[in-house]
Write a structure and sequence with these properties.
The complex is a heterotrimer of chains A (about 260), B (about 180) and C (about 270). With about 260 residues, chain A is mostly helical. Chain A is built from 8 helices and 3 strands; from the N terminus they run ββααβαααααα. In chain A, α1 runs antiparallel to α2. Chain A is globular, with a radius of gyration of 18 Å. Chain B is an all-alpha fold and about 180 residues long. Chain B has one domain: Ferritin (Up-down Bundle). Chain B has helices at about 5-30, 35-60, 75-85, 90-115, 120-150, 160-170, 180. In chain B, α2 (about 35-60) runs antiparallel to α5. Chain C is mainly α and about 270 residues long. Chain C contains 8 helices and 4 strands. Chain C has helices at about 45-70, 75-105, 115-120, 125-155, 160-190, 190-210, 235-240, 245-255; strands at about 10, 15-20, 30, 115. A two-stranded antiparallel ribbon of chain C has the order 1-2. In chain C, strands 3-4 form a two-stranded parallel sheet. In chain C, α4 crosses α6. Chain C is globular and about 50 Å long. Chain C starts with 8 loop residues before the first strand and ends in a 13-residue tail after the last helix. Classes of the chains: A mainly alpha (about 260), B mainly alpha (about 180), C mainly alpha (about 270).
């Protein structure tokens, strides 16, 4: 496992060790922060907002590679078909890192220019079984990503940024396949052993608690998008699940707008 | 400008249609082709073409089309394929398939590689590059057989040129659909 | 077969069968296995004849799988993939046997050939029935045969041919297995196919009876035909299990093959 202190990590407000494992390794170009509030959170109309987003997203995709790779290493007895899907996910996430790096640098960014968060790896790799990891990484974070990307595609299109539309569309197609194989694995696991549903619930509770600790209410309440219902259906969510996600997103937005 | 995800899905589904068509063409030719070695050659390549179609069919799914989805190419190109599938003599089958149809399709694959964003669309690029490598092997195997069996060589040298002209006459074989028709 | 055009058929001893597939002029194609030369023992000519015959059977297997791809384009894609893969496997078998045939001094067309399996199987109008005959009957029979033949070739001092046959056996198991697995799926989805399969088996019995040699008839090499009961091959239980035959199916086959007296509750041989 990577050691926590091999690169610069902020010490402000240590995270709950029951929820977070060690950080993945980064070279000296990068500065890791522990909480969203410590990052470079530019206002919506700031010209650097999108540049910083590319850098942040690049690192999140790197977390995606690291999580998938860690699961391949940690669970060698998993069904081969599932391991193939995870290996494929490694390649997809690695390509996403390159995609975001390319657009980030082509628009004037320099690697390490902004702080990064590694909460995804620290939360997910800390879970002890593959079912829990896939529930959190693929079915929660990446499914949330489908919704976010859908919204981002519309925004980029409105701005006439075709390069970004192409990037997001491709990312979205890939994420759908990751969520889909995870959904299939999760359904099959619970079908074989209904008690596994308890692990799913526990993992989701741990992850949402950890997520809130990193992001704080400030970040979560700023989420402006709803659910991408079509994308979620393609990714293997049931209709009821998609509707529930939409209802939750509407409530979240209403709560934000009432403040 | 590069291709959108939907356009990529349409290309991939169109390529899949052609691959399945070619697999069926070789299959159709196996029983009525007399030469045992040619039956063997076709039998080997049926599996190559099926695997290539399968890889494209899985890639199409990743591009948000249904799993193993095919799109019929432009009608003029389908007519060329259908007419070619009715070819009778073994030398014409061999020369037409390995000297004209596969190289023609390879050119369309290379054109796709030039048009798409090789990073964003890397999984399709990998599938297509693998197919191109396999096409080279398949063509090489047919050439080796032609060296071994001189009766497979074509006497009418104009025939492949005529087929090649018809094959290349339709530059764009992908028929655009509405997004709902693809998904 | 319903739907076969007259020009696609041939008449043999009152039976309507699919016309033979194309062969080169060097081959003499006969209508039944009874018309083939069967040289006794493991003499040089017998070895060449055995490989030559096997090579043609494998050629027929390519043709049957290829024709299934042509005739049933609406079959599930996974099943079509198996058939395409089978084309490749059978092609390699032909190439391997042809190489061996030449190594021992044989050549194409040295002996008459029969395309019996093609003529019967491709007369059937459903993929399920064709799989039931070609893969589940003919090829499963080949499993039994190939279970014994390598030892016979080794006894005769021919290690190379034994190795070729063992390689073929590995592939044939996969062909029988996918047919067994898909037949269960197809019949579950459409119960009427069970009747089609039963009719196919009956058709095979009728053709086999019609084309069988007459009492007292001598084979083309001037020898009496072996009695059917002496031709029974030992059932290859282990490989049939690998090919996804169920225990009860193997039990039933053992019974039909005359092994009832030696059968125990367990079909392990």
């Amino acid at each position: 496992m990577p050691k926590d202190d091999e690169h610069s990590v902020s010490t402000a407000g240590n995270l709950d060790p029951a929820l977070f494992g060690p950080a993945p390794a980064r070279d000296e170009r990068f500065t890791e922060k522990r909480r969203w509030i410590e990052c470079a959170n530019f206002p919506n109309d700031h010209p650097l907002r999108i540049i910083e987003f590319f850098h942040r997203q690049m690192n999140e995709e790197l977390n995606g590679v690291e999580n998938a790779a860690q699961s391949l290493a940690d669970f060698p007895d998993t069904d081969w078909k599932v391991r193939m899907s995870i290996a494929r996910q490694c390649a997809d996430e690695a390509r996403h890192v390159e995609m975001f790096r390319r657009i980030f640098e082509s628009r004037g960014g320099k690697l390490g220019e902004y702080p990064i968060l590694n909460f995804q790896y620290r939360i997910i790799a800390n879970l002890g079984d593959l079912l829990s990891r896939l529930v959190v990484q693929n079915r929660s974070f990446e499914a949330g990503g489908i919704d976010a990307v859908s919204f981002a595609i519309d925004e980029a299109r409105k701005r006439g940024d075709q390069e970004l539309v192409d990037l997001f569309e491709m990312q979205q197609a890939d994420e759908i396949t990751h969520v889909r194989f995870a959904n299939e694995f999760i359904s099959e696991t619970i079908r074989k052993d209904p008690r596994a549903a308890l692990r799913v619930a526990k993992a989701l509770t741990l992850a949402s608690t950890a997520f809130l600790e990193v992001m704080g209410r400030e970040a979560i309440e700023k989420v402006a998008y709803l659910t991408d219902e079509k994308g979620r259906l393609e990714a293997g969510f049931g209709l009821a699940e998609v509707k529930a996600a939409t209802t939750q997103a509407i409530k979240r937005r209403a709560s934000y707008e009432s403040h | 400008m590069s291709l959108s995800v939907q356009e990529r899905a349409e290309y991939v589904a169109t390529f899949r249609f052609i691959q399945v068509f070619l697999m069926e063409t070789l299959a159709r030719w196996v029983p009525p082709t007399p030469e045992m070695e040619v039956k063997v050659l076709f039998g080997r390549h049926i599996w190559d073409l099926a695997q290539q179609a399968d890889a494209l069919g899985r890639r199409g799914y990743e591009l948000r089309a249904p799993l193993q989805f095919s799109l019929r190419p432009a009608e003029s190109y389908v007519e060329v394929l259908e007419e070619f599938a009715r070819t009778n003599t073994t030398p014409q089958k061999i020369h037409g398939f390995y000297d004209v149809i596969l190289p023609g399709l390879a050119a369309r694959y290379r054109n796709y590689l030039e048009r798409t964003d090789r990073l964003l669309d890397e999984p399709t690029v990998r599938v297509v590059e693998k197919i191109l490598g396999e096409f080279n092997r398949m063509i090489g195997e047919s050439e080796a057989l032609r060296k071994e069996l001189s009766q497979l060589r074509l006497t009418d040298k104009d025939w492949p040129a005529g087929l090649a002209k018809r094959e290349a006459s339709e530059a764009n074989i992908v028929v655009r659909r509405s997004s709902a028709a693809v998904a | 077969m319903a739907g076969m055009k007259p020009e696609e058929t041939k008449q043999v001893k009152g039976m309507t069968l699919r016309r033979d597939p194309a062969r080169e002029a060097c081959f003499k194609v006969v209508d039944s296995d009874a018309e083939l030369e069967e040289w006794p023992g493991m003499t040089e000519i017998s070895r060449r004849q055995r490989i030559h015959r096997h090579m043609n059977n494998e050629t027929g297997a390519i043709e049957i799988a290829a024709q299934c791809l042509v005739d049933f384009p609406e079959a599930p894609w996974e099943l079509r993939m198996h058939l395409a893969r089978q084309c490749w496997d059978e092609s390699r078998h032909v190439a391997g046997l042809y190489r061996r045939l030449r190594e021992i001094g044989g050549y194409k067309g040295e002996f008459p050939i029969s395309c019996f399996e093609w003529c019967v199987t491709c007369s059937l109008d459903t993929l399920a029935a064709r799989l039931a005959l070609q893969n589940r009957t003919f090829e499963a029979g080949e499993l039994d045969l190939l279970g014994q033949l390598p030892a016979k070739w080794r006894e005769a001092g021919d290690e190379k041919t034994a190795e070729v046959l063992e390689s073929i056996l590995g592939d044939e198991i996969t062909h029988v297995r996918f047919a067994n697995q898909w037949l269960r799926v197809l019949v579950r989805e459409d119960r009427r196919l069970a009747l089609k399969i039963a009719m196919a088996v009956r058709f095979l019995s009728a053709v086999t009876a019609a084309l069988a040699p007459q009492d007292g008839q001598l084979s083309p090499v001037g020898l009496p035909y072996e009695e059917p009961q002496n031709r029974i091959t030992q059932v290859n239980v282990a490989d049939r299990k690998q090919a996804d035959f169920t225990d009860s199916e193997i039990d039933e086959y053992l019974r039909q093959s005359g092994f009832q007296p030696i059968m125990t509750g367990n079909a392990e041989g």
